[in-house]
Amino acid sequence: LQSKSTKYIPATILLEAYKLSDKENYLHEILAGSDLFVPAYIEPERNPELNARVEKLKAQQANREYDEMTKNVNFNRIYASKSNETFMPDMKSVQGQLITIANV
To answer: Where are the transmembrane segments (predicted)?
Structure first.
């Protein structure tokens, strides 16, 4: 909450003045009655390519987390690791049972 009329002296100038001075000054005497001036932070504009990459990585991470949560629920995932050769006998068995039920 600095006003525009506030004057400030950079620390480098104070250091130079101290080195050039013949009189021995102490830092606490020089800084007596002074305030700390911190310029307002100006947030740099983000690169649009970086934003796009961050969003893509967030989406990939969300998909990985979702897949991890639902790995034992998804039927396709269970049989994805198995080949059709191991899946087809199961289907033929089910088909045979359905035909038997239909004939009764």
So the answer is: none
